[in-house]
Amino acid sequence: MQVGLVGAPNTGKSTFMKACTLADIEINNYPFTTIEANRGVGYVTTDCPCKELEVSCDPNGRCVDGTRFVPVKMLDVAGLVPDAHQGRGLGNQFLDDLREADVLIHVLDISGRTDAEGEPTEGYDPYGNIEFLERELDFWYEDIFKREWKKFSSSIELESKDFEEQLLERFSGLKISREDIRKVVKETKLDTDIPGKWSEEDIRKFATELRKRTKPMIIAANKIDLPGAEENLERLQKRTDVDIVPCCAEAELALRNASKQGKVNYTPGQSKFDIVGGKDLEDKEKKALDFVKGILDRHGSTGVQEAVNRSVFDLLDMIVVYPVEDENRYTDKSGNILPDAILLEKGSTAEDLAYKVHSDIGEDFIGAIDTRSGRKIGANHTLKNGDIVKILTEK
């Protein structure tokens, strides 16, 4: 699973990415700082069962005072400008990279100090960037379908091939699922037996709805600390149905760097931090932390972790499940307590978990045990967020 960061140039995408991953990423105040896509590992946070069970877990990763960090791949692509789908700016490269993403976070300069080209300005309406970005994504999908539509429709009408199967085969790079296709067909009410008779408007409608399902998006309203940003945010919330999270990536990056250096105790997503006792801070550092504290007091967090969490848990509807080998001690074969946290789609079954852990385990799956109840569960048992499961196999 991959979270993609999108937006116009110079809106703070690279700062957001660096804050999430602490990767070595170039950050500059001019358009197209990012040319090659930046890739890294970020985290979603969730409540770990260790507190409920009163055990000390041994995670393959990180757990801080009952907050579990579950890794997700992150992708920061080149900035998008109007007419990117026609190759303008770094558009073609941007869109090719974006195929890999399962969900998008649109990093938007909510202060109105960056225009659609990524150039510094004053008083720009950030709604314009939302409009053009969604339009470019829709044009991108539409162009992909139009290039293949004649061959695609002929295979269905002349060769009696299945609409869903052909769509999955020809456009697999877009991460389309059978469920996505069925829901979009139902919404658009288009006749899948005769796609060759679809009008350009029909293709556009189908492509747009499929884009919305396969690349769902949340907005990180970045630079919320700047003058005019909160007024812009209030106006935007009335004009778009896309979820918006007020955000200051700069503040999050400052906190994570200070935490890494041992100067503060801070858990990403929290509303406060503590300066580590005995640490001498320079005046510049004190001023920076005072600035960050003001943001946390006003907004409850920097918004960065919230945006990542909501993209994965709300838009993708994921849950976290903990596979173990010893159902009584919640350990793996080496005695590590709750070592693994696995992200699964809501509605996933015990058998889905087995295949997620390893294909061989899935092949040998014969059942599972819900460790909390001690009850044996079958292949089709639907898992819930926070479940701890022992997988049973033939071997």
Key phrases:
single chain; 395 residues; alpha/beta; Rossmann fold; Helicase, Ruva Protein, domain 3; Ubiquitin-like (UB roll); 3 domains; five-stranded mixed beta sheet; 13 helices; 14 strands; 19% strand
Number of strand elements: 14
Q: Which spans of ≥5 residues are poorly predicted at pLDDT below 50? A: 30-34
Chain-averaged pLDDT: 90
Compute the number of structural domains: 3
Q: Could you tell me the strand content as a percent range?
A: 15-25%
Assign the CATH class of the largest domain: Alpha Beta
CATH superfamily of the largest domain: P-loop containing nucleotide triphosphate hydrolases
Using the CA coordinates, give the radius of gyration: 23 Å
What distance lies between the first and last C-alpha atoms, to the nearest angstrom?
Answer: 29 Å
Order of helices and strands: EHEHEEHEHHHHEHEHEEHHEEHHEEE
Helix content: 25-40%
- CATH fold field value of the largest domain: Rossmann fold
Q: From the helix content, strand content and strand pairing, which structural class follows?
A: alpha/beta
Examine the secondary-structure arrangement and name the CATH architecture of the largest domain: 3-Layer(aba) Sandwich
General form: flat
Oligomer: single chain
